[in-house]
Amino acid sequence: MHGGGPPVGLRKRLKAAASSVPDSGLTGPIEIPDPKPADEAKDLRARWRRLRSNVGGTVRGLPKVAKLTWQASPVMTVVIVLSTLVSGLLPTVTAYVAKLLLDSVVAAVQGHGTTARIVEVAAFQLGIFTATAVTTALTNVAQQLLQERMTLTIRHQVMAHAARLDLAFFEGSESYDLLRQASQEAPSRPVSMMTSALGLVRTGVTFASMVALLVSVNPLLAFVALLAPVPAFISQSKYGGRAFMLALYISPIRRRMDYLSSLVTTDTYAKETKLFGLGPYLVDRFKRLGQTYYARERKLTTKRNLVGTSWSLLSTVAGSGIALYIALEAVAGRLTIGDLALYTSAATAVQTAVQGLFTGFTGMYENNLYLDTLYQFLGTEPAIVAPVEPRRMPEKVRGHVRFEDVSFSYPGAAEPALDGVSFEIRPGETVAVVGRNGAGKSTLIKLLCRLYDPTAGRILLDGNDIREFDPDELRSSISAMFQDYVTYQGTAAENIGLGELDGLDDRERIADSAHRAGAAERIERLPKGYDSPLGRWFDQGVSLSGGEWQKVALARAFMRDAPLLILDEPTSALDAQAEHDLFTRLRALAAGRTTLYISHRFSTVRQAEQIMFLEQGKLVEHGTHDELMAVGGHYADLFTLQAAAYLDEQVSPS
Ligand SMILES: Nc1ncnc2c1ncn2[C@@H]1O[C@H](COP(=O)(O)OP(=O)(O)OP(=O)(O)O)[C@@H](O)[C@H]1O
């Protein structure tokens, strides 16, 4: 990682990754940048600094991992730690027993040893082998179980955290990559990191005991065995960082590939894909994206391994040299045959251990980079939260809404979506919001539901700024149906009941909401009535038409008996009769509630007590239907245009 703490560096990298792959989508060139960072250290001092910061960052990552592992399963954590310590000592003991055995055999052959001694040593050796097998098995079991628990724990944490985050988080593409990395890449990393860390401890134990053995023969030998694997480690750590960078670049590409694949494999898209003959085009696009990303991956993996292996040959040469030296010492009679065996295996073990230490560390470094994305995700705090001392919602909310000079711009947008909007809705009033596409109507609703906070100005409910309330409490006083309502893959009753969790099992209330939304008649005709599964994702699901789904979504909004009723184009998919019926009922439904609805159908809009006309984020006209018609402005133009179209008259808007 280059300078700074991991989160800052990581944020920069994520940004770089998101903007380095501008369009790898449906058309255009497909390119993945070289993961080699432009500012990669060249001189020795810079490399040393980088190494230190890598090591520091990784070591600092350990306590968090230890905490995660402990949270996942304290028992398994203890088992792993203990078995690791034991298994660290076992190789040295094994080597030592082998020496004892050889020496006792040589002694017996030379006539001054006994068979009983050989049996004794052999029995001891059996004990050691058994202990090795048991610890290995224990470690494996603990590791596997811990992995499962960890995956569940992290996915749970990610889900719980995502549920807390603002809508704004989900509407940015950078966040998608972060969420994807956190939920898909991160779960395997803590155990992997913990295993590497414990592997380091184990190797450290083996290493220390073996080095002690080697030093007793010749300190220089120990020194050579120690230094030989260093270059391999340095190259590994460099490539570990690049692999992580590549994963970041590839993340948007993978997302694009998933999208392309879903276009071809999901029922919703199948119609258009077939009609426009998009299948082969999309498949080819998918294939080319895959090839590009595979090519990059292959280049890096091959280079990483080739360079790594070349450097590790150095250790192999050093190892053979040491073995030769020890053999010559034995021939000269300065070491016994047992010593020869012991030191040779000690030299090999030290080499393997040092390599293990380094690769273990490199693995930890790479895992830590992935974990940073998890921590960064978990560290993203929602901006829309309850104040320290939230104002209590009034016992009975009257539904008096007031916008005071409200402006709002979406993050990164050049133009404001709402610009200095002021209006008042009296309790119980029914208001229609109209305007051309993109005028800011849905945005106005999102602000009222506090899914976003205004950039300037304030919104009052019953005289209080809505930011003073707990957002959850505020939302519970609102029934809403959005333009892009959800079609839940569940039963009809569940689809409606989810509008008010308390009433999920209240059949009477669900049926009542369905009646009010005009959905009851269709649901009653379903094979299992309210228990019929809707949607085709699961077995026996029934497909509803667009308008039928919309009625179900409306019924869901009606589940809540809230003082504010907000409907964003509630009749866009309804037939003329259904729309008429709904608005006839809406008068009764809206009685005593403040109702705000968006509609492009002027026949229904004219019934509202107040009409607000938005144009490019500004409230340009405001009044009753008659007042606005008398003004002869935008509203009158659009109304006349629509009415004329119905009456088949040739009228051109002025
Ligand atoms: N999540 C978002 N991020 C950035 N810009 C957005 C986002 N949602 C909407 N916008 C922009 O804000 C402006 C207002 O959008 P809004 O959805 O409020 O329009 P609308 O009046 O409801 O339109 P329609 O009648 O088409 O539903 C549009 O220009 C749109 O591009």
Automatic annotation (TrEMBL):
Task: For the region Disordered, give the residue spans.
Answer: 1-39
Recorded GO molecular functions are: ABC-type oligopeptide transporter activity; ATP binding; ATP hydrolysis activity
Which keywords does UniProt give here?
ATP-binding, Cell inner membrane, Cell membrane, Membrane, Nucleotide-binding, Transmembrane, Transmembrane helix, Transport
Q: Which GO terms describe its cellular component?
A: plasma membrane
Its topology with respect to the membrane? Multi-pass membrane protein
Q: Which InterPro entries does the protein's record reference?
A: AAA+_ATPase (IPR003593), ABC1_TM_dom (IPR011527), ABC1_TM_sf (IPR036640), ABC_transporter-like_ATP-bd (IPR003439), ABC_transporter-like_CS (IPR017871), P-loop_NTPase (IPR027417), Type_1_exporter (IPR039421)
The chain positions of domain ABC transporter read 401-641
> Where is this protein chiefly located?
membrane
All copies of domain ABC transmembrane type-1, residue ranges:
78-366
* One Pfam family recorded for the sequence: ABC_membrane
Domain of life where this protein originates:
Bacteria
Q: Which positions, given as ranges, span the membrane? A: 75-98, 118-142, 223-250, 306-328
Where does it localize? Answer: Cell inner membrane
Asked if Electron transport is a keyword of the record, the answer is no
Q: Which family does it belong to?
A: Belongs to the ABC transporter superfamily. Siderophore-Fe(3+) uptake transporter (SIUT) (TC 3.A.1.21) family.
Question: Can you say what this protein is called?
Answer: ABC transporter ATP-binding protein
Q: Which organism is it from?
A: Amycolatopsis acidicola
